[in-house]
Design goal:
single chain; 239 residues; alpha+beta; two-stranded antiparallel ribbon; globular
Length: 239
């Protein structure tokens, strides 16, 4: 059935239709979209409007252009996810690749701070993932990740989870992480930090609080990372 935009701004209508199709899995990660011309004809809009929508979704990392081939659904591969979302580096900018050391996954009733962060109703259940990650063989950060259980059915039953979760979210659950909001703060290392990360109790730690979002700013993950700061920095390039 052909979808056509209704009585709303034309660009916004077309944008929402394409986003909904991507979210519903009409095209799989890495799959080519129909041509700009064919999409415009199907939706009953000009090619210029269609190009504007595709350009916007490309800028948002939902789509990617391949020279001479067309427009594709962007894949959250392990390498791409690490490059985009893992910002820890050595002083001077050497980018690092974390490794998963251990993890505990469980489903439980959500708590008030989690409901506030993820816009969940009271009584909703969440998946809690607690894990330690190594950098060059040394325990470097520990994470607590909270997911809405209804959006990730059965994730707690998987024998292991990948090093980077966002590729799993996309391929197995149809959830594309397109943006993340982060807050950074300094805290003192706790007794648990000392036990797990082998840092002196009371030494400075970097705490990263992230809410990851899918399409239309739907909040799908709350992640708190505690990172040793003796030989690691949070590195961002501004352009």
């Amino acid at each position: 059935m052909t979808e056509t935009p209704g009585y709303r701004p034309l660009y916004r209508q077309v944008y929402d239709i394409v986003v909904r199709r991507v979210a519903e899995g009409a095209w799989r990660p890495g799959e080519a979209l129909p041509s700009e011309h064919n999409l415009a004809r199907e939706l009953g809009v000009s090619q210029g409007t269609m190009r504007k929508v595709l350009d916007a979704l490309t800028a948002e990392k939902v789509l990617e252009r391949r020279q001479g081939k067309g427009t594709y659904i962007a894949e959250n591969t392990q390498e791409r996810t690490l490059f985009r979302f893992f910002r820890m580096a050595r002083p001077g900018g050497k980018r690092l690749t974390p490794e998963r050391a251990d993890e505990v996954v469980k489903v439980r009733v959500s708590r008030p701070p989690e409901r506030e962060k993820l816009d969940l109703p009271r009584g909703d259940r969440v998946v809690e993932i607690t894990r330690t990650r190594l950098i060059e063989g040394t325990p470097a950060l520990r994470e607590v990740i909270i997911l809405p259980a209804g959006a990730f059915p059965g994730i707690e039953k998987r024998p292991t989870l990948p090093n980077t979760l966002y590729s799993l979210y996309q391929t197995e659950y149809g959830i594309n992480i397109v943006a993340a909001q982060e807050e950074l703060r300094a805290e003192l290392a706790s007794a648990e930090d000392h036990r797990i990360l082998r840092v002196p109790e009371g030494s400075p730690m970097l705490v990263i609080d992230r809410v990851a979002m899918s399409f239309q700013e739907r909040k799908v993950e709350w992640r708190r990372s505690r990172v040793r700061s003796d030989d690691l920095v949070y590195s961002v390039t501004l352009t």
